[in-house]
Design goal:
It contains eight helices and ten strands. By secondary structure, it is an alpha/beta fold. The chain has a single domain, classed as Thymidylate Synthase, Chain A, CATH 3.30.572.10. The longest helix is centred in the last third of the chain and has 23 residues.
Length: about 240
Amino acid sequence: MRIFSNAEQMVREVERDLFEMGTRYQSKTVQDKYVKDDPDYQTIELVGYSYMLTDFDNDHIENVALYSGYLNLKTDWLIEEMAERIHGPHESYWENPGAAWERNEELWRPFLRNGCFSYSYTERWRQQLPYVIRELQKNPNTRQAIMTMYDRHEDMMNWGGLDRVPCSLTYQFLIRERKLVCIYGQRSCDFIKFFGADVYFTIGLMRYISDMTGYPLGQFIHNLGSLHAFAGDLKGRNIF
């Protein structure tokens, strides 16, 4: 596992590892799209990639979110999406689809079905987050403070491109050496479109739990089953 003490160095090095060590193949499906014959979805991928970030601040994390250039001019979406994910259950933010997606409409509108998304982070966090905070407050040595995004009853039925399946799987929180540790597990992460945003949102969640529990931030550990990028997002970079 690579260990970084600077978020901006981390994202540069993760990109370098992907492009230097990744393997190439043609994706068949991406979320609910069939792309087997689309050269824009030639894929470069690192499997089983992990790193640790030991120091970060708000400015650096925003720079990570914007690093690939994909979310340039989308900072309003980052801020509003983060607010939707962490507000309490009494807020209308919990409704699917919420409102933040409209700040990034080009990306998210194609995923709407009958006015809703197949899942939302706010829906799946809403019943779990209070329990995680309470468990960390009551039992700071716990290993059980885990939130899950994956629902086997719903998500397994959407395999093969039928609908979106969560890329984020688990968020485990531990208090170690009187600091809050987050271990974030993803099955899949598109480096260009989502890596920086996923890091931004997860560290935002980590900050919220830190505020609620009173424990300062410790390590952020990120485990990725598939870290990848697509040819259509890399034109002019001589990767394929």
